[in-house]
Amino acid sequence: ARKHSIRVSTATNATTIAAMADLIGPGMISNVQVTLDGDEIFHDSQRIPCSGEPTFAAMIAAIRTLIERRAVIFLRIHTHPGRLESTRRLIDYLEKEKKLGNPNVDVYFAPINTFDAGNDPWENQEVFFELFQRVAAKTGRPPSLNLDFLNDILKMKTHRVLPKIQFCSLGRDSLRIVDGSGDIYDCFEEAGHRDR
Asked: Cβ(56)–Cβ(15) under 8 Å?
């Protein structure tokens, strides 16, 4: 990559960053995406490795290492209407730890599901909009660069329209993933998981 002036980026669960720290930084792996599912309690209930050990603290330590190595971190935060308090606690934590607003940390929301008009009270949408605005104010940019999603956020606030949110290829009307065996999936992240 260096020989051909190719910029290298990676997406990782960040649990092995310490072992590869010498490969990270300007002129090496310069951009790193790390995903958090929510605050420590929720995240550790979702991201369980074979060892069964919690992962949140290790991922936060990895983010510190990435900052020290001067990498640009794309912090992907999974959001879901049913767990917005977990998202709020995560944002509180990131702000306290000075990760939110750090010039090397770009935060963006990756919604997992849309709001359900029949089951989600309007207050949940208000909480989401408040978190969206709070992160945008702290970082100087909206926590999404998807123009369709940003448009839906504006409509959600002004017209109380529920956004159609896409995760992976879910939410799209025609795209399907077919793997080498001919199995069909809704999402490329599900390919290979036969139960899906």
From this structure: no
